[in-house]
């Protein structure tokens, strides 16, 4: 999975090429730094949780949670604006993430930065509103319903973003302030977040998420299209025989996959190997109740001797 002679793991996490740690072990900008606390994407210094070659995704720990507290004694505090800026090869997944806001009478916004096809930068914004009149009005559920917690989608092709949560002056009163002084907003992997009503009227959310929240990033190995990349000679990233180029949908760029019937690492020469569909554990994934014979990139399935394909006993 890694280049020969290069470190293929950081702790328990695999680091497949084009990612790598150490000089000569990665393709720019997929440098990974590894220390006793974990693996980090060097370009943004966010902690890596998982790398997927097949999906073209990385799960990271997003440390940026926006918060604002307005206490009845007049003391106020906030996190300030904490943007997360990615390199041009990584984008926030618009299908795996959502913005979440926790609070009462709170308007939250995620503002992103993206580029048009002409490489002109422009902003994007998504908002949601959460409301509750007292602690009892917040449902005891794990999903955001708009009462004490709301969610909004994240725009595609976003390479940098900030989140902001603010109390709505005409609705945010001393009653709400007394039991829900703080609001939070963040972008995270939508399947990983579970709401708890205690988050609304205490500081338990901040205390239980000091390291941040999981976030999914889409990555590309090159910023051009497949038609452009295949003309790049040795700079073309899909190095393995039996690999193919894929144009991504979340922003410009391409990545590589092993062709159907093969598995492994398409970014390494010889990295895509034939799948033997007739042997465990692959056997359970490919339907054949007769005689299975592996072929290069595929397999054949025939009836046992003495049986026909239309025989009800076969």
TrEMBL record:
The UniProt keyword set, sorted, is: Disulfide bond, EGF-like domain, Repeat, Signal
Q: Which InterPro entries match?
A: EGF (IPR000742), EGF-like_Ca-bd_dom (IPR001881), EGF-type_Asp/Asn_hydroxyl_site (IPR000152), EGF_Ca-bd_CS (IPR018097), NOTCH1_EGF-like (IPR049883), WAK_GUB (IPR025287)
Topology with respect to the bilayer: Single-pass membrane protein
Q: Where in the cell is it found?
A: Membrane
| GO cellular component terms, semicolon-separated | membrane
> GO molecular function of the protein, one example?
calcium ion binding
Q: What name is this protein filed under?
A: EGF-like domain-containing protein
Q: What is the originating organism of this protein? A: Aegilops tauschii subsp. strangulata (Goatgrass)
The answer to keyword Repeat applying to this record is yes
Domain EGF-like, by residue range, is: 274-313
Chief localization: membrane
Specify the domain of life of the species encoding this protein: Eukaryota
Q: CDD domains of this UniProt entry?
A: EGF_CA
